[in-house]
Amino acid sequence: xxxxxxxxxxxxxxxxxxxxxADYPDLKQLINNMFETMYNADGIGLxxxxxxxxxxxxxxxxxxxxxxxPELAQFxxxxxxxxxxxxxxxxxxxxxxxxxxxxxxEDVPRSQxxxxxxxxxxFKLHVEEFEDFKARVIQHEYDHLxxxxxxxxxxxxRRQMIKSKLNNIVKGKVDCKYKVVR
Length: 182
Ligand SMILES: [Zn+2]
Description:
The protein is about 25% helix and about 25% strand. By secondary structure, it is α+β, with helices and mostly antiparallel strands.
């Protein structure tokens, strides 16, 4: 089932999300729905707050990028209750967009390397390290669980320049080919 995506300005995107337990109701179905919602919107990552749920759950599938980046073809993750254990001081700048902020992409600095702990969809614990683009996508989605959006991390001048676009999203003046909550 495709879920409507919360847009910039919706308060659920600004809340700190809560951990869940393995008996969270219909968790498998929710995860399936999040993947379906993400694919339908041509996204590569989606965090639960973006579908209105303030819980620590995110999904990622980088397969759509495999033509230019074969190493991303198999990168499909479900992360439950993730905890960022370490991040590198070294940062890389890269362009990011967000399904909750349609029509805007900006350069965002992210740690080049991260070490993260999380539970998968079977509540098996993983501790893994990621680099470069994978680390970027995970940091973006992890931020959603903390109520942080990529526009919080861009240069103040850039933020000023996209202010009217952001205000238009808040007012619902935005074209989106997927279902959204305005
Ligand atoms: Zn996002």
